[in-house]
């Protein structure tokens, strides 16, 4: 374990108090916005069910009527979940700033799994409800729903079949055996499945056919969800491509095998990137243009310059050293809330493992640091395997931050096996700190468990993880 530190004087108590109060006000505003977004999603579903109940088409006087009613309820709930999924993954600025990309992606996945089960319940209850009074049998009734109700219903069944394939390939057992690129290619079909399922809600949904206002309400919601996805996942990247003209300016290779990619463009700060955030980069070069991958900024961006550092951990990242100078780049972002805006404590702890040090380096460069109240932890198997360590040390010295470089094989926790250490030993005032950590999921979880054992609450723990 190598430890480097600098003793510097503390700032005045009045200035420290002012900054603390501002951070807490900012956190409170973000919490209110977060609650508002979540409440809006709940109100969408509640409003839709309210329209159904007031439409006069609800029948619970018989078993078949009850099953059909439950089928309609589960259909509305499943559709609301799908809308929520689209909004969460559309990368709308308000969602990105309030929820954060990592959490939005996790919620997107959870809603997808739950929504599929609710959708399955929707199909089963409707088939049973329609089959009971006709006595035609389940399979015959299923066939009738597929072919006899017209094109929109047939498309909905086709969409469900496509979605089933997507869900199966997203299961952890299957996903763990797939390359990211293969999984992502199949996952794209989920949007096709949604598109196929939407029309039947307007042509066969009794709630929305019975009430004009409900029909327009439902159309507005789908327009926001689908329109937001198209606007921020398709239109905005194209606009930024032509506006900013980002291209590869230089390529370099570090001792640990990481590729340093310097990018240049026009008016890059108009995208409002912040140190600690990442972009989805699509390099428009043969055999690379079809995939967009997330890479964190490894230095604070400038108006005509930004930099990323990529560790060869997968097929796409391993080919970054093949990029040609002048290759144009399409970007989505900036993404993530791994920024100072989520900070509330006085002491700043920045911890990175391996390539996870890159957003830490950018963060360190621009963070609001009170001298002597910032600690940087760089974790690597060896000094050679710690990318940009020289820059970390140089910037930390300029900014009055303490640096702890922990090297060696990992033990049961997050620190080296031969020299285990607790985070409270490196940060004496850990109880008054915010910990930002980036690295492999298991390492981050171990570090956070140590921080919580030292008295920190989860709201003071901020992660940027390498997982998919």
Automatic annotation (TrEMBL):
PROSITE patterns tied to this protein: FAD_FR
Membrane topology classification: Multi-pass membrane protein
Gene Ontology CC annotations of this record: membrane
Protein location: Membrane
Cofactor field: FAD
Chief location category: membrane
Keywords: 2Fe-2S, FAD, Flavoprotein, Iron, Iron-sulfur, Membrane, Metal-binding, Oxidoreductase, Transmembrane, Transmembrane helix
Pfam families referenced in this protein's UniProt entry, alphabetically: Ferric_reduct
UniProt-listed InterPro entries: FAD-bd_FR_type (IPR017927), Fe3_Rdtase_TM_dom (IPR013130), FNR_nucleotide-bd (IPR039261), MRET (IPR050415), Riboflavin_synthase-like_b-brl (IPR017938)
TM ranges: 39-58, 70-90, 111-132, 152-174, 186-203, 215-235
Sequence ranges assigned to domain FAD-binding FR-type in this UniProt record: 241-341
The protein's name in its UniProt record: Ferric reductase-like transmembrane domain-containing protein
Lineage, broadest ranks: Bacteria, Bacillati, Actinomycetota, Actinomycetes, Micrococcales
């Amino acid at each position: 374990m190598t430890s480097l530190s600098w003793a510097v004087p503390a700032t005045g108590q009045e200035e420290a108090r002012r900054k603390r109060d501002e951070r807490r006000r900012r956190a409170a505003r973000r919490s209110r916005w977060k609650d508002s977004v979540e409440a809006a999603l709940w109100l969408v579903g509640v409003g839709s069910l309210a329209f159904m109940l007031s439409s006069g088409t609800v029948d619970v006087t018989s078993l078949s009527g009850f099953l059909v009613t439950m089928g309609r309820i589960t259909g509305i709930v499943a559709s609301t979940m799908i809308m929520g999924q689209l909004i969460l993954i559309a990368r709308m600025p308000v969602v990105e700033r309030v929820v954060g990309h990592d959490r939005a992606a996790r919620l997107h996945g959870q809603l997808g799994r739950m929504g599929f089960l609710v959708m399955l319940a929707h199909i089963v209850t409707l088939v049973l409800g329609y089959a009971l009074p006709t006595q035609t049998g389940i399979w015959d009734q299923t066939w009738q729903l597929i072919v006899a109700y017209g094109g929109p219903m047939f498309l909905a069944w086709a969409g469900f079949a496509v979605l089933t394939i997507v869900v199966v390939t997203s299961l952890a057992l299957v996903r763990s055996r797939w390359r990211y690129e293969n999984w992502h290619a199949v996952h794209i079909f989920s949007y096709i499945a949604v598109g196929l399922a939407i029309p039947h809600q307007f042509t066969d949904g009794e709630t929305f056919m019975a009430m004009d206002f409900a029909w327009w309400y439902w159309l507005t919601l789908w327009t926001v969800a689908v329109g937001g996805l198209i606007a921020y996942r398709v239109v905005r990247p194209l606009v930024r491509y032509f506006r900013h003209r980002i291209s590869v300016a230089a390529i370099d290779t570090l001792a640990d095998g990481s590729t340093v990619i310097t990018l240049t463009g026009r008016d890059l700060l108009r995208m409002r990137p912040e140190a600690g955030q990442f972009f989805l980069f699509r390099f428009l070069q043969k055999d690379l243009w079809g995939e967009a991958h997330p890479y964190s900024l490894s230095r604070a961006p400038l108006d005509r310059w930004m930099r990323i550092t990529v560790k060869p951990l997968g097929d796409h990242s391993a080919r970054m050293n093949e990029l040609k100078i002048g290759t144009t780049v399409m970007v989505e972002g900036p993404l993530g809330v791994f920024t100072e805006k989520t900070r509330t404590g006085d002491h700043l702890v920045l911890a990175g493992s391996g390539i996870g040090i890159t957003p830490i380096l950018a963060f360190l460069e621009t963070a609001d640091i009170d001298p002597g109240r910032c600690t940087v932890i760089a974790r690597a198997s060896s000094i050679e395997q710690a990318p940009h360590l020289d820059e970390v040390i140089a910037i930390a010295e300029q900014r009055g931050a303490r640096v702890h470089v922990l090297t060696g094989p990992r033990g049961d926790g997050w620190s080296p096996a031969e020299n285990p250490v607790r985070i409270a030993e490196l940060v004496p005032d850990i109880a008054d700190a915010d910990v930002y950590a980036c690295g492999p999921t298991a390492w981050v979880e171990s570090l956070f468990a140590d921080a919580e054992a030292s008295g920190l609450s989860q709201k003071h723990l901020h992660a940027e993880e390498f997982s998919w």
